[in-house]
Structure formats: structure tokens, C-alpha cells
Amino acid sequence: MTDLLPLNPDELLTTTRTVRKRLDLERPVPVEVVREALEVALQAPSGSNKQKWHWLIVTDPELKKKVADYYAASHAAYTGPVDPAADPARARIVSSSKHLAQVMGDVPVLVIGAIEIDENELPAGNQAGLWGSLLPAAWSLSLALRARGLGTAWTTLHLQYEREVAEVLGIPGNVRQGVLLPVAYTKGTDFKPAPRNDLDSVVHLNGW
């Protein structure tokens, strides 16, 4: 088993950050480390315990480049100019996001979390039950990787080109993608909790 960072549960939960500029693009990531983290992640809940999730681990340089090209195209359409003086926090995020779009194809491993659906089209109405059977495991994967000294960035921008990416990777029509996680060792492991809204501004006791 891979050595784990000395983090207690609260430290792990509060310091698992979106990592972009601090992804180490030069250090190889053994597939076995990703598989080990996935073994942990698959303890996450799944509706009716059906476990219809699928995990695509992409390491082939040509396949990564094709996925990265679609990601970059979606990113270019998604992001707009931002004034650093007016909104420095947003400017930092945009800069970091742009960096990831530029290097996505160089990240050692790309992991796509996907899930089987009953029909070739997503269900109408509220889809919480469907995605609630995939995304908790994807977040558990991020946590398990962080515990092993690796970083991820939760992103869904590639889904603008979901069908094209599915064709590249041979994903069947009844399997839909939910998240893309670029995975690499991090440059340092000293991540800290991020600013968040005051708890009382988002908690509602016994009603809104």
C-alpha cells in the first residue's frame, strides 16, 4: 500500500483543493496508485447499491491530447476577460484555469467518472438520484489521491464535447460522463483550507 500523508480526517477534508499550477507534470503516476485510490473511492454510496459507475483511466499520450483539445476548446468559449484590479480573486482562478487548459494533455493521468443509464438519453426531471450514484465516489477518489500525495482538479468543461470524447475513448451510448479529474503528484503537499461563506449564511434550521 502507498504511504499516506499524516492527515487526520478533518485535515484531509479541508485541504483537498483544486490543484492546477501545482500539478507535477514531470513525475510519473503509477496506474496502480490510481487503482488503489479507486478501491477506496468505491466504498462511496450508490443508489440501490447498483454501482453502475465506470472509471476511464487515460494515460496514452495521443488519447490525452485528443481529450485535452476538446477541453481547451470548451475552456476558450467558457472564460472571458477579467480585470485583476477589480476582482483579484477571480483573476487568480481564471489564470489557474487557463494554465490547466494549456497543460491538460501533459498531465500524467486523466480519470473520467461515468455512469450507466437505462436509456441512451438522460432521465427527464430531477437527476439527483443518477448523479448522486457517481459523484460521491469521484470526490472520494480526490480525497484518496490527496492522502497519497496526488492532486486533482474537479472539472466538467469537457462535457460540452461529451459525445466527441466518448467517441475518442470508445464509451458506449448508454454510459454518460460526469466528471474529469486530471491526476498528478503535487509540488508540495502543504495545502490549506480555502475561504468559504459564513456558515450561518447557508444553514437553514427547520425551514428556509
Automatic annotation (TrEMBL):
A Pfam family recorded for this sequence: Nitroreductase
InterPro entries in UniProt: Nitroreductase, Nitroreductase-like
Domain of life of the source: Bacteria
Boundaries of every Nitroreductase domain copy: 15-183
SUPFAM superfamilies, per database record: FMN-dependent nitroreductase-like
Stretches that traverse the bilayer: none
Keyword tags: Oxidoreductase
Family of this protein: Belongs to the nitroreductase family.
Protein name as annotated: Nitroreductase family protein
